[in-house]
Amino acid sequence: MKSAVVVFPGTNRDKDMVRALEGASGQSPALVWHKHSEIPKVDLIVLPGGFAHGDYLRAGAMAARSPVMREVVARAESGVPVLGVCNGFQALTEAGLLPGALLRNADLRFVCRTVTLRVENTQTLFTGRFAAGETFDTPVAHMDGNYFIDDEGHRRIAGNDQIAFRYADGAAAGPANPNGALDDIAGVFNETKTVLGLMPHPEDATDPLHGGTDGRKLFDGIVEALS
Amino acid sequence: MKARVHVTLKPGVLDPQGKAIEHALDTLGFSGVEEARQGKLIELDLAESDPERARAQVEEMCRKLLANTVIENYAIELEA
Amino acid sequence: MKARVHVTLKPGVLDPQGKAIEHALDTLGFSGVEEARQGKLIELDLAESDPERARAQVEEMCRKLLANTVIENYAIELEA
Amino acid sequence: MTEIIAEITPDIVAEHGLSAEEYQKVLEIMGRVPNLVELGIFSVMWSEHCSYKSSKRWLKTLPTDGAQVIQGPGENAGVVDLGEGLAAIFKIESHNHPSFIEPYQGAATGVGGILRDVFTMGARPVMNLNALRFGAPDHPKTRHLLAGVVAGIGGYGNCVGVPTVAGEVNFHPAYNGNILVNAMTVGLAPTDRIFYAKAVGAGNPVVYVGSKTGRDGIHGATMASAEFGADSEEKRPTVQVGDPFTEKLLIEACLELMATDAIVGIQDMGAAGLTSSSFEMASKGGMGVELELDRVPLREVGMTPYEIMLSESQERMLMVLKPGREAEARAIFEKWDLDFAVIGSLTETGRMVLRWHGGVVADLPIDPLAEAAPEYDRPWEPVEPPAALDEANFPEEGDPLDSLERLLATPDLASRRWIWEQYDHLVMGDTVERPGGDAGVIRIGDGPKGLAATTDCTPRYCLADPKTGGAQAVAEAWRNLNAVGALPLAVTNNLNFGNPEKPQIMGQIVGCVEGMAEACRALGTPVVSGNVSLYNETDGQAILPTPVIGGVGLLPDVALVPGIGFRGEGEEILVIGW
Ligand SMILES: Nc1ncnc2c1ncn2[C@@H]1O[C@H](COP(=O)(O)OP(=O)(O)O)[C@@H](O)[C@H]1O
Q1: Total domains present in chain B
Q2: Which residues in chain A are contacts of C17 at CB distance < 8 A?
Q3: Using one digit for the tens of pLDDT, what is the confidence trace for D235-249?
Q4: Complex ipTM value
Q5: Which residue of chain C comes nearest to A34, CA vs CA?
Q6: Range of B57's domain?
Q7: Which chain D residues are within 8 Å of C68, Cβ to Cβ?
Q8: How many CB atoms lie within 10 A of CB D58?
Q9: What is the reported pTM?
């Protein structure tokens, strides 16, 4: 599987993501700088975590409007799978590739801890390795992860199986839902399930040193689907 | 000319900052606050001096960047 | 009655958000923006209906909570 | 010489924090009455903050050598050899007064400052730590200060993308009016690419990079050394706002340029900004420097030379490049959307000459000023050992489980999860031991080696017996590193004390430093960097003596980190070294 990781000024989980992709696919992803308007031909485009442009104005807002995003949107529309993690998820919603928006955490504090996710749809190229209803542990680290969508949108994404992951009871010492997200939503797909965004960081749960390797299933599944 | 943009959350969108302000005001003993909402104020200094063109420009800025219309409304005020 | 509070950074205080907005607008091709500053807009629904008492209340809220007077100024508008 | 101000009055001298004798020295060095710009430069260079005038005599007694030490105190940060061509670069620094005035921004810019000290030397920052002291939990200001400081540390470190892996927090009424915010950064660099602040080579360009200069924190350096009074909240505009996004860009741009061989010397603009950075770089290289202040990137119109030289705007660096490398460097900084300006050059005159609007606005000798920086052997009184406590005065303890519960609920022992969950402690993907254990641990590169770090101090011990307290802080850091399986290598320290002009306070400093030195010698962990914060008093009330130790150690294999949790039922519990 060939992949590309988009790097914005302020991206800071690019290295974590590169390692996870290398681990799963055996190939080094291409790094694409935000000012570039071209992306090499790849099987997967990834927007990693961080604080692109400082998250000033709104998280992901400025990243979503950088030159490279025009190409990301075009590729996504032509069916190339796109994965956005944390800041990448925020940018994908800002760019209109995913429904909803990510608001400030309900308690207004940054949160970094391990949470448990329940896989809500296993019939996608991203989640094929998971069993229906399976839960897994992965860290979160964000200030704006409070997923919001209006009622109509909520019904639509629920009806169309676009909810990818929900926060569930498990690893966390605190409440299962770390940020107040609507309906415990931690990740969503686009209509065709070729674009996935999620707040948690599966890339930081791929090495035994991370305290768990549950995140590998996601990456291994993607590689399997796209190779 | 100067433009002032108010970006506010749409009705129905959860406003954690507003809620936190309500709560803090209450804790501080300010009792009569029925609701608090927090939005953004963006002040722009524009080279454009024609009000109509300025407004059109700022409208476009709002749609393209300053507001996320999935969750936010915006209002523009111009000052000479 | 309703009150609207504008909280802005004092002149001279670094405004990273404003700078970033300027930069982003420029990248998007909006050329004539000489300066952008970002502040907060806080809207309050007050039980108080007397304008003078309302203003005095909101003044105090600003000093005690809504503005960080180390680096911010505030301005109050009342709406009936 | 362009006229800056007509007359330097005794009031103006006093406002600049210079004593009558110190001003006399200024006159001798200058051979004339200084103008305001020059006076401002003397003032910041001779402030406690920059000159360590009260503590220098005692800092010299600390052990700073060892086979592992590549660079001890005196540079932006200390450097320790990790073997296999890698070095750890680290330092701790205080941002106490600014954090009391504006907790979020004060703490945030404290993190920004210590990060710059470390990446200035060529290191990629890999761990942040902090040591915090607040007033009584029920004091009306404590909640606000704690929440603001923690949010500020997180707000900056999380955005920059450096994991905050450990720290400590204590509460005591002695900090009610004077909290402590000490931030530490540990970075990694190849041993053959370490950068120093020494400027050499007449004619070499002096380059300014980073953010623009505004009227931030003018007089901040002198404020940080002045005792607090009731009016201190009036000194507010001296607080600076941090821009972690720009810092992140600055890290990446500097490291990119450092991968070439274009840099001769580099120094961050910390307290006293352009003044201390240019001054120190020239002084270390025995050079003179000429700056064209018109070329300094400015954020505001109408800034004066005085303001430009004393501004403490954040996220700025000063470099000396090899001749002809300007274009290459400029391309890197412009790629990262940062300001880049050649603002002057090195000379052989040994003088600092500042030009502005076609005239000379300051002209002063560098070495005499640096050498004549005041150094005081302040009178001190040994601290009387406290009377022994009589066991008979303590009530019989009841049920041990009850006592345990009560202990765990005290603010000084309670879980710090609420704090460290607000810090991104996982970014970079190398965190092995998260906060909550004895020391933070990260993996170095692809492993198996790891690096451990901790911050420690028990102020009440230091109050009761400074020497033992100083030694204990080192020993505790040592044990915390040991407990995660690391071999302690070296320490950095942050000496937080009250007003050194009081002999009792000076006695605490002397005692703590003595104990610290003795323990460092005994344990083979030299002091490679540090920071001193004095005058931590409010209305004459000093804080507890708080000499914080930041320790760094090396692990042969991160897979062997024991971790703090009991692993399973039936396992034996041992107590060692009782
Ligand atoms: N300000 C802080 N930042 C990060 N971690 C912290 C902070 N304060 C405490 N911790 C972490 O919480 C744990 C317990 O803290 P503390 O009780 O101060 O530990 P100790 O007494 O062992 O130094 C430690 O792992 C420490 O690293």
Answers
A1: 1
A2: 54, 56-57
A3: 435 678 999 999 999
A4: 0.92
A5: C27
A6: 2-79
A7: 102
A8: 24
A9: 0.93
